[in-house]
Amino acid sequence: MQQSNKYIILMGIFTGCLSFIYFLSLFVQVPFIVTILVIIAALFYLYKWVIIDPHKGKDSPKISWLAILLLMAAIYLISHSAYTMAKKYGEWDAWAIWNLDAKYLADPLNWRKLFQNVEYSHPDYPLCLPSVIGFFMRLFSNHFTTIIPFVFSLLITICIPVLIYGEFSNKNIVAGAATLIVFTQCNFYVMAGVLQYADLLLAFFFLCSFICINYIPEGKKYIILSVFFLGCCAWTKNEGIILAFIFLLFYAPVLFSKENIKYSMGAMVIPIVIILLFKITSDTSNDLLNESGNQTFGLLFQNERYMTTYNSFISNVNEKFFYVKIGFYIYIILCIVEKKLPGRQMLVLLTCLVAYFLVYIITPKPLEWQLHTSQDRLLFQLMPAMIYVLALKISGIPFLRYLDMIKRRKNPAFIQPEDGRGNTSEKSSNENFKGAKAVPGKTHIKKRR
Predict the structure, then answer these.
(1) In the chain, what are the domain boundaries?
(2) DSSP character for 416?
(3) What distance lies between CA 216 and its chain's CA centroid?
């Protein structure tokens, strides 16, 4: 994995750990100074574990000036758009749910009262984002209560495209630049990023899990990272449980194989324990489940609900995810030309879309209202992972692969990530490059005499 991307992965894993530690400290009433020391120790350990690789040398591929300039331009455009679109207190769910819960969690004596706010809030919503925001609010003695949520949301909004771009900047600059164009030109992405909702953090965790699973050949720690990020998804929103379950279902042969099961199960322990403690403490269930009744099964046979949901889906895709739609068409065309089925990661995302679609079919709430208020955000949760998977496929276009082979002659020490089917672009490139011999961890090229 690119060294710069490891720092973003570190930030993601530290965010999840911070939320777990802080919520647990509130639950067992640990002094705040002890909580701070534990969090600092966790950051130090995670840094050594994620960033420092004792099995690798100091040499790493250098990022070209062109790649740096493209990244800086994209960060500027996203930051400028975010600043102009952001509202002081975020949108409705930000100040009515997420930031309000954060203020409760910043009060160690009265934090449990957030579960009494059942009329206008949702006490059954997991507390990953509120725990992080609440920790920093308490750390700064409830100063900067409006700045902290905005800064955190802006940071994650920027990190998502930077993380995806980092996967291709040294491997396929064209594919990397294409991802930056999509993020900078998609106004909905920036707008949704600064709403200060938990959907952004869920999208970030889900993307990190997709990326880490492709680096399992580099070390077993990426199994732990990938599964732990799925646990963070479940701790961020209730939909995250659906996403994590589908991901684990498709990757069960890898994650629960005889040699990997201990790493996967170990990574699940902390998220499962914290979520169970939260469910016991909140003593509330999901509002959709509460309102469901005997008529729920009958909703599956109402054709108009399928048409209404589908029409809303098409409208949202055309208006807010147009560039992603174009990338998906290119993906399908490439699959047809190559006579291959979609990769495993694409199947994960499509299954998630079907699951979300069915949720709307059986929702007990007014369907049009439910679609209007939430469908675009559910699609937003899958957007970063979808762009990453599309970029992996597009980077395998023969012309772009030829550019990779030219770069390989100048810098042979880089490795392509997995394409979502268990194969790497590096492997397929070596098969087409005469004189190359693939060795785990390195790529040696025979010199021509």
Answers:
(1) 3-52+60-299, 403-445
(2) P
(3) 17
444 bridge partner residues: 437
Q: To 5 degrees, how large is the angle CA 133–CA 136–CA 142?
A: 100
Any alpha helices (H) in 86-146, and if so which ranges? 92-93, 99-105, 128-139
What does the alpha-carbon distance between residue 2 and residue 170 come to, in Å, rounded to a whole number? 8
> What is the Cα Rg of the chain in Å?
22
Task: Note the pTM of the prediction, 2 decimals.
Answer: 0.86
Place of tokens 């250098």: 62
Tell me phi and psi for residue 438, to 5 degrees.
-85, 130
Give one DSSP letter per residue of 29-74, joined into a string. Answer: T--HHHHHHHHHHHHHHHHHHHT--TTS-S--PPPPHHHHHHHHHH
- CA-CA-CA-CA torsion for 200, 202, 205, 207, nearest 10 degrees? -70
pLDDT tens string, the chain, 449 residues long: the values are 788 889 999 999 999 999 999 999 999 999 999 999 999 999 999 999 998 876 565 455 666 777 788 889 999 999 988 888 888 888 888 888 899 999 999 999 988 888 887 777 778 889 999 999 999 999 998 788 889 999 999 999 999 999 999 888 777 788 888 899 999 988 899 999 999 999 999 999 999 999 999 999 888 899 999 999 999 999 999 999 999 999 999 999 999 998 999 999 999 999 999 999 998 887 776 666 655 656 777 778 888 999 999 999 999 999 999 999 999 999 999 999 888 889 899 999 999 999 999 999 988 888 899 899 889 999 999 999 999 999 998 887 765 555 555 555 554 444 444 444 444 443 433 333 333 344 444 444 344 43
Q: State how far the Cα of 319 lies from the Cα of 376, in Å rounded to an integer.
A: 10
* Angle formed at CA 320 by CA 249 and CA 317, multiple of 5 degrees: 55
Buried b (16+ CB within 10 A) or exposed e, 310-331: eebbeebeeebbebbeebbeeb
Q: List beta partners, residue 424.
A: 418
Kindly list the distances between the CA atom of residue 147 and the CA atoms of 133, 137, 140, 193, in Å, as whole numbers in the listed order.
Answer: 10, 10, 11, 15
Longest dimension (CA), the chain: 78
C-alpha dihedral sign at 154, 268, 7, 213: negative
């762009």: which residue's tokens? 387
Cα separation, 447 vs 434, whole angstroms: 11
Two structure tokens written together for 248 = 């684990």
